[in-house]
Amino acid sequence: xxxxxxxxxxxxxxxxxxxxxxxxxxxxxxxxxxxxxxxxxxxxxxxxxxxxxxxxxxxxxxxxxxxxxxxxxxxxxxxxxxxxxxxxxxxxxxxxxxxxxxxxxxxxxxxxxxxxxxxxxxxxxxxxxxxxxxxxxxxxxxxxxxxxxxxxxxxxxxxxxxxxxxxxxxxxxxxxxxxxxxxxxxxxxxxxxxxxxxxxxxxxxxxxxxxxxxxxxxxxxxxxxxxxxxxxxxxxxxxxxxxxxxxxxxxxxxxxxxxxxxxxxxxxxxxxxxxxxxxxxxxxxxxxxxxxxxxxxxxxxxxxxxxxxxxxxxxxxxxxxxxxxxxxxxxxxxxxxxxxxxxxxxxxxxxxxxxxxxxxxxxxxxxxxxxxxxxxxxxxxxxxxxxxxxxxxxxxxxx
Length: 399
Ligand SMILES: *Cc1c(COP(=O)(O)O)cnc(C)c1O
Prior knowledge:
The protein has helices spanning 3-13, 46-49, 58-70, 81-94, 105-123, 142-147, 172-178, 204-215, 266-269, 285-297, 301-324, 350-359, 382-398, and strands at residues 25-29, 32-35, 40-43, 98-102, 129-133, 164-167, 183-189, 218-222, 246-249, 260-264, 329-335, 338-343, 362-363, 365-367, 371-374. By secondary structure, the protein is of the alpha/beta class.
């Protein structure tokens, strides 16, 4: 089928909620994708921080194929080894006590919010407030879009679930003002992703942890984007010397197979009893077999130091680009392989920069209209960084 025919079928039949780029992607290998015409693209988006091991990674393909040949799904009414293994690994890695699997990031956060509410209700029936950050992103279900501190995602969906409040990320004084004994949980991304790649500053998360402890509020960290090794540590919170009560994961956790997860302390886990929460698909053997490959690969010390090193090289190359185009790039920020370049009066818009890069064979992302966001597969090397920097250099110089 031709590209035109596929555009036409999709545009006519699919719900028009995505502004799609006009290419049809067909296959991938390592850090490259190929469209239906055979054009090759360097993939510095990784399906939005999902394909952590790149495309068509052999051990992942084999694990999925082997599991599919045995059994894809059995429901959570029974035990499977794949799920028991994945939960055991996540508990060990997180330093928390219990894991639960869902099918997406939003669902993982939804579960985290539910267990926090149930936990706090035992302390006091009016301990329901959940504080999140402006410019955060937590998902698209009604509770998680309410948790998302961006009014554009709320509009038209009211009435929204009650009990949510917002503070500015990195502003500890504002949190100190809003938090109280009525606070059930503070929910933050360890590094803000979709909102423009904002890491915590000035020991912010340690101070948040202290405030949560003071008021008996749970700290929920959303590592759906920043976790799975992307920051250079398996959990980004390890970088900032703190531990949450609940952490959520998704995106890269199964290398591209849909999955979500939350982990929590035993104390929090005790709030849920059989029947309080559930899912039909969540944590099925196929998704967990894929997750087990990621969990056997990414937490390895050598793998994580690779992320740290290639991330540092990439950041340095972006800073060089900023020095060359100071009138177009005003800031470079991020950790490991979640990096952002803040645009400031660029010759062409962020979206146009993305399009021009695509013409030249590189897939990158622009978030909130003004931040070039780089969330590539974690297996990229310095030469891939050079390739994308050369393309960006060309785009920024020519517009
Ligand atoms: C992507 C994302 C989500 C939502 O995940 P979905 O799988 O799209 O539901 C939630 N939180 C963060 C930080 C994310 O980046």
